[in-house]
Amino acid sequence: MLKGHVSKRKTSSHPTDLYGSIPPTCLPIMYHPEYNITFMGLEKLHPFDAGKWGKVIRFLKEEGFLTDADIVEAREATEEDLLVVHTKRYLNKLKWSVVVATITEIPPVLFLPNFLVQRKVLRPLRTQTGGTIMAGKLAVERGWAINVGGGFHHCSADRGGGFCAYADITLAIKFLFERVEGIAKATIIDLDAHQGNGHERDFLEDRRVFIMDVYNCHIYPGDGHAKRAIRRKVELDWGTEDSEYLQKVELHCEGSLNELRPDIIVYNAGTDILDGDPLGGLSISPQGIVKRDEIVFRAAKRRGIPILMVTSGGYQKRTARIIADSILNLSQQGLIGGGASQSEGAPLRSSHMESSSGSAGSTSVRV
Question: Which of 21, 39, 129, 275 is 20 to 30 Å from the Cα of 214, by its Cα?
């Protein structure tokens, strides 16, 4: 726990294993081998690399950044945990294989018995969701946290899609609001190539949550209703490259955090902006992605705001290496701890109860 900061718990609505204490020797990096989806090759029918999370950890181990003992083992979110955001009706719909096949965009899943779908497809996604919720609390305590998975930004309380079955970003924020004293405002910085329509629908009428979204405006989901929740909207054109992209990310990241000073930042760090991504349609280099993440973490650290990063989309085999390289760069730049002895992370301001005001307006930039 950081000096001067006390993470007090509010009265909880239900008991959960996701907010248990974490050994101080662990880095605030969430992972579990269960993250990876492997079953009869079905995962290969979607462009998403369903084993990328394990590859990120392997690369970080090979570089000597961490060992198994440094990793926080993510726990599966239970139905009670999920009901903090999701409707019972939506969770019941996931008991139909045809619904899961539609959400994951893997048609053959509809032919599988649902007990197999639960075990081989949904359990990994529930475990990643649990990892994001756990990372929220840990970010407040340590200054930063990274869930090597998660970032299911197309899922809302009552609707999934785009390979997103659980609304982990919304859940992490709602858990913090309900359970951690002093966490009253959040900013979502969504830099995946796709619009984050799931969390946008969930927080459409919630002024405690400021959403900045930078995305290719020509691709899925094109959710006009959800766009009303975006307070700082940056719509990119096909093939946007590093120079223009990084300039806009820095400008609007600084602008967002100046407009509303949050108690927590949730950073959706999708790598589908990478040049050549079959779904993203942008042209950002690996070095550009590393620099992008550095810009966001530097803005958070300079202001003493805890930051939670999730990895979200990325549809090329090389994205795992880029995510690992980015985490290594954040450590080299002193923006995150690089070992158990440094795991306290960035210093936080003394009180999360500090008041700040934000504009109710929305800033929109079309590129």
Answer: 129
